[in-house]
Design a protein that fits this description.
The chain is α/β, with parallel strands linked by helices. The protein is built from 14 helices and twelve strands. It has two domains: 147 residues, Aspartate Aminotransferase, domain 1 (Alpha-Beta Complex); 223 residues, Type I PLP-dependent aspartate aminotransferase-like (Major domain) (Aspartate Aminotransferase, domain 2, 3-Layer(aba) Sandwich). The relative contact order is 0.17. It binds pyridoxal-5'-phosphate. Belongs to the class-I pyridoxal-phosphate-dependent aminotransferase family.
């Protein structure tokens, strides 16, 4: 009998983490490598949030807490949902986990039976399909190409729904493309969902605060209140507050679902770190003015990266609405040969040759379910970005 389960064998390890690790190994071996593969802001966690964590330690808030969050954090989350999204939840409708990742995982584990389908628009965040598989469900991937701005159309959604569809996973602004759905575009999708009452919506709003050029963020239960009773609205402090290592994510949704998620968490990890929970209370309740500085820095970097990548031969780079990623197409590079002799047959050979020959680590599009593209995370210094984009331009110019 094999050691590893058949379910686990269908799952692949996170390619973004693999690429980041490869770049770190090359760096450790003395190679000059610029990493553009990690999905986290380069800013430090703001001082007032760190101070709240230090206070929590000094006050002895270092013991087990309620499984899915301390009452103070649940209250801060309820206030946030009401203030920013117009969504009213009571405390039984809030779940706090160890990062948005655990919250999504809990929800899928709590709800999927074998054969249940989950619609995942591609390009997708790398973990969605594998989380669905781990939970025993079937990911139904819907490719949303560059021509539709990497966004799913109502017709595509309608065509993907079957009697077995349990969830639609919705992510705006998106990792990996940065594409954001306007209120009208989202309404087009929620209108379809209103016609299919058996389909639930998992909205991953992780990049809510990172939107640019006046883009208006909206979330499904807000745009269509008729979906409130079958929507899980997921968010977290990782990206907006530069708190990726603290591991706090949360969700609001129907009490029965939240109770199911609590059951999963109670038998796996129990409560998220008590100290991080107090830090998250401060993140949500405290001053928010620094978010403007984060947004300005990201928007400036986005503009620079989009301009420099569009100047690279064979590369086309759309301008995203939010997050801190761009997802350029390399259609114009396919079939060419790099100076080292590698033929660029797909985005994986492109990314590998780029790393080996030019020392720039990006993530190939196949990892996100849409090719031929690559993802750049521009959450790094302006100097590193300029250097990396110049290297990409040279790499592309040298392709024959
Ligand atoms: C779209 C999306 N959802 C969820 C997460 C998970 O965030 P967390 O660090 O809170 O687990 C990420 C992190 O990369 C993400 O990009």
């Amino acid at each position: 009998m094999p050691l590893l389960s058949a379910t686990l064998n269908r799952v692949k390890p996170s390619p973004t983490i693999a690429m980041t690790n490869l770049a770190l190994e090359m760096k450790a071996a003395g190679r000059d490598v610029i990493g553009l593969s990690a999905g986290e802001p380069d800013f430090d966690t703001p001082d007032h949030i760190k101070a709240a964590a230090k206070r929590a330690i000094d006050d002895g808030r270092t013991k087990y807490t309620a499984v899915d969050g301390i009452p103070e954090l649940k209250q801060a989350i309820r206030d946030k949902f009401r203030r920013e999204n117009g969504l009213d939840y009571d405390a039984t409708q809030i779940s706090v986990g160890t990062g948005g990742k655990q919250v999504l995982f809990n929800a899928l584990t709590a709800t999927l039976d074998p054969g249940d389908e989950v619609i995942v628009p591609a390009p997708y965040w790398v973990s969605y399909p594998d989380m669905v598989l781990l939970a025993g469900g079937m990911p139904v991937v819907v490719e949303c190409g560059i021509e539709s701005g990497f966004k799913m159309t109502p017709a595509q959604l309608e065509a993907a729904i079957t009697p077995k569809t349990k969830w639609l996973i919705f992510n705006s602004p998106s990792n990996p493309t940065g594409a954001g759905y306007t209120r009208e575009e989202l309404k087009g999708l929620t209108d379809v969902l209103m016609r299919h009452p058996h389909v639930w919506v998992m909205s991953d709003d992780m990049y809510e605060h990172l939107v640019f050029d006046g883009f208006e963020f909206t979330t499904p239960a807000q745009v269509e209140p008729g979906l409130y009773d079958r929507t899980l609205t997921v968010n977290g402090v990782s990206k907006a507050y530069s708190m990726t290592g603290w591991r706090i994510g949360y969700a609001g949704g129907p009490a029965e679902l939240i109770a199911g998620m609590r059951k999963v968490q109670s038998q796996s990890t129990s409560n998220p770190c008590s100290i991080s929970q107090w830090a998250a209370v401060e993140a949500l309740n405290g001053r928010q003015d620094f978010l403007d500085d984060f947004r300005l820095a990201f928007a400036r970097r986005r503009d620079m990266v989009v301009r420099m990548l569009n100047a690279a031969e064979g590369v086309t780079c759309p301008t995203p609405d939010g997050a801190f990623y761009v997802y350029p197409s390399i259609t114009g590079c396919i079939g060419k040969t790099a100076p080292g002799g590698t033929v660029i047959t797909d985005d994986q050979t492109f990314a590998t040759a780029l790393l080996e020959q030019s020392g720039v680590a990006v993530v190939f599009g196949a990892a996100f379910g849409l090719s031929p593209n690559f993802r750049v995370s521009y959450a790094t210094s302006d100097a590193a970005l300029t250097d990396a984009c110049t290297r990409i331009q040279t790499f592309c110019a040298d392709l024959r």
